Amino acid sequence: xxxxxxxxxxxxRRDASNWAPPLDIALHAARDTLARHAKADIHDHxxxxxxxxxxxxxxxxxxxxxxxxxxx
Length: 72
Known about the structure:
- This protein is mainly α.
- The chain has helices at residues 12-15, 23-37, 45-69.
């Protein structure tokens, strides 16, 4: 049993950014991240942690790029 306080991957106050990459770069990064983590071992905590953080980051970049392109 752990006594660590859980911390979210993303904290809007801590991680706020006004910059968004161009859509083609964000899409390339998302595809690259998906490919890198496609064979992650579900039974390996390190693999799952690395995949979760990498995919979270790539998805946030992609959403920011889409929002920026749509003028939101």
